[in-house]
Amino acid sequence: YGTTWVGETYYRQDAKTAAELKGATDPVGALARKGGAAFFLFSLISLAGSIFLPWVVESPDDDDPLSSVKDAPTGFYHTVASLRRYRPDITTAWGISQLAFGVSMIMAPVTRSFSSATTLVALCGLPWAMYGWAPLAIMGEEINKLAAAANPHDAYSRLSQDGSMQLSRTSSDSEPPAADATGGSEGMAGIYLGIWNIFATIPQFLATFIAMITFSILEPGASQELGDGAGGEAPEEGVRHGLSGTAVCLAVGALCSFVAAMQSFRMRRF
User: Fold this and answer.
1) Does residue 119 carry a pLDDT above 90?
2) Considering the entire predicted model, what is its pTM?
3) Distance of CA 185 to the CA centre of its chain
4) Among 30, 58, 94, 251, which residue has the least CB neighbours within 10 Å?
5) What are phi and psi of 169, to 5 degrees?
6) What does the angle CA 24 – CA 29 – CA 33 come to, to the nearest 5 degrees?
7) Residue 173 pLDDT more than 50?
8) How many CA atoms within 13 Å lie on the side-chain side of 29?
9) DSSP run (H or E) holding 4
10) So what's the pLDDT on residue 32?
11) pLDDT of the residue at 163
C-alpha cells in the first residue's frame, strides 16, 4: 500500500503534475518509481535501525548496565554507554515503535504533498526494523520465564563474562529431568511460537477484507485517472479529490497500532 499511496499522492498534489503524467509515455511506471524512491529511503532507515537499535534497547535480566554494550561498534560505544540509564526495555521499545508507526500513518488521509508522504513512509523504517526482531525476542523471554517456572530444577542462566550469550545448566543434577508430555521447554516454545504465527497472520486476512470494503466505498470501479478513457471519461479537472482508499487503509492500520502500543505498555517491566 505504501508505494501506491506515495505515487497516488504525487499525482494528486497539483494539476501541473497530473498534466505531466497524463502526457508521459508510461505514467504508471513513473508513479511506481516515485513510490520506489520513498521505499528506498524506508529500506535505508530500516537497515540502519536493524543494526543500531539493539544496542540502545536494554537487554533482559542484565545485572551489569554495561554488559549489553560491550560488543557495540567502537564509534558507537560511547553514545550507547552515555544513554544506558535511559534505554527502554524491549517491550517498551516495541510499544514506542508501534506508537511511532501509528502517528505516521494516521496522517496519511490528510497528507497532500509528495514530500510529506515520502517522509512518513521513510520514518516507518524504524518501526519495521523493530518488527524484524522485537516480537520474537519478547516471545523468547516470556517462554524462558514460563519454562523456568515449570521446571525450576532445569533453569538456565545467562553468562556474560566474555561478552557473549551462553546458556548454562544451573541444576546440580548430573542427569537432566525427564521431559513432560509437552516435550519440555522445546515443546512449550513450539506451542507459543505457533500461537504467535497465528496472531501475526490473522490481521493480514482482516486487512484484506477491510481494504475490499474501503475501496468499494471510496473508489468503486476502475480508476480513469491514468487510463485511456475506455469505460468512461476522466474528470475534467484532471485530478480526483477526496479521500484516498489507500490512505484510509493505512489509517486503519495506524489505529490498530495504537491499540497494540497500549497493550505493549501494559506488558512492560517496571
Assistant:
1) yes
2) 0.72
3) 28
4) 30
5) -75, 125
6) 110
7) no
8) 4
9) helix 2-12
10) 86
11) 46
